[in-house]
Specification:
Distance between the termini: 28 Å
Shape: elongated
Strand content: under 5%
Order of helices and strands: HHHHHH
Radius of gyration: 14 Å
Length: 126
Amino acid sequence: MLFIHSFSKFSKAEWEKKRMDKAIGYSFAIVGINITDLAYNLLVSGALKTHFYNIAPEAPTLSHFQQTFCYLMHEFHKFWIEEDPMDIMEFNRVREKFRKRIVKQLQNPDMALCPHFAASEGLINM
């Protein structure tokens, strides 16, 4: 349910543009579910505390979570392209490497996961 709600903020047009860059080589639904899981686990573990404080010091809302989801989807796509995996069988390796990269970024006290594309407009509270 959280994936569907967050996905609605990630515009189809934005995704279609990305698909034209290169054959993506993965199922959008599988990535969306995995990114939702990543965002949720980062939230539950407390890794997103600094991020949310930097973008919404008053009190983060579901919109801020959706912003984070959009950022992670966008960044995962770019990361997948950079990694240039041979096939879908490398998905777990790429996903884990991406997760470690995000966790490391979130250790920076000034970090704010702020997307800069059409689907994120109006979400950032800065």
